[in-house]
């Protein structure tokens, strides 16, 4: 399903984010950028240990990434140029609005890097425990607010693993984003 927001194409799709072609892939990360499980683990397994090594170096230099913040590393063997590690909230521990902040910061970082396309997973829905609909609302809100200001980014892919995630995100995105078409 495709939407158009402020001249930016937003594509909701099922799939494996490690297989997607985009200038940057967003990783659903923890503050210490230790990529053990979920999408983070899959990104390191597919992209190579260099992503984990660069992540540890980033934390050594800058300290832990705050919730809602981002860090950037190379993408190793992935098809992307960069991995933007976005730290979403742990539901029930940190405010859900930090998820929108993480998405906005990831989009703005990609813009700062002059990228044209970015792929986002369903941040905070795995071990961080946020329900799909709540995460989708935060992500749709962030995209709607930031997209009109983007100049280099022309394509945002929201890549969802599994049918349940896709259907929940589709339902929410249809309500929050204009111009939905198959």
Automatic annotation (TrEMBL):
Pfam families: Macro
Macro domain: residues covered: 1-177
Protein name: O-acetyl-ADP-ribose deacetylase
Species of provenance: Pyrobaculum aerophilum
